[in-house]
Design brief:
199 residues, three-stranded antiparallel sheet
């Protein structure tokens, strides 16, 4: 299963758990879409502010904003897992928000297919979060799940194996980091990176 988050990408394998947890971050040269580095490696390189490299977060507020960079990032993350034989076939279930539009869904599917994943199916994020938290989602008794991510916060009420009602706020932890960095800049005249603001 693949959770392509605004801030973090996780890949889960049944029986083994989370086999990859990396920032959804790419370091690219100039206007190219070819990756110089990905994930934690990209974060470490970009922290040194090298000339000619820029940070690209290809997913913004739960939506694929840069298709080719996103596909290249996924490809890089999947390559060692496929070589190790972790996946018998390169298909995936991709998590998405309950209010994902058809266009956003298509963008996720295209990025996954460009990365070499096929077939691609989808599951609603609140349902996946509830299952991961050990809740009995098949029960007809209602339960509420709040999933706070880097780009979105989603609240949903679940019952009888499905989402009854949900709301998504297209802001999350990343917006908080930016607000902290802005407050430090305006009130103290101190410039900090998003990583420092997060800490």
């Amino acid at each position: 299963a693949l959770d392509l988050g605004t801030y973090t990408t996780r890949i889960y394998q049944a029986g083994k758990g989370v086999v990859l947890c990396e920032p959804t971050l790419a370091a690219v040269r100039g206007e190219e879409t070819r990756l110089a580095a990905a994930g934690e490696e990209a974060r470490a390189i970009l922290a040194r502010a090298p000339e000619g490299l820029r940070a690209v977060w290809p997913v913004r507020n739960g939506t694929v904003a840069q298709m080719r960079v996103c596909a290249a990032l996924l490809k890089q993350y999947l390559a060692p897992l496929l070589q190790e034989g972790i996946f018998r076939r390169a298909g995936a279930v991709v998590c998405l928000s309950s209010d994902t539009t058809e266009l956003e869904r298509q963008g996720l599917e295209d990025a996954a297919r460009l990365a070499g994943l096929s077939p691609v199916s989808f599951a609603e994020k609140p349902l996946c979060a509830a299952i991961g938290a050990g809740l009995d989602v098949r029960s007809c008794r209602g339960c509420m799940v709040v999933d706070g991510g880097g780009g979105t916060v989603e609240a949903a009420v679940l019952s009888c194996g499905g989402v009854v009602v949900s709301r998504t706020l297209r802001q999350g932890g990343r917006a908080m980091d930016e607000a902290i960095a802005q407050a430090l800049r305006e009130e103290l005249g101190v410039m900090v990176s998003s990583w420092t603001a997060e800490r």
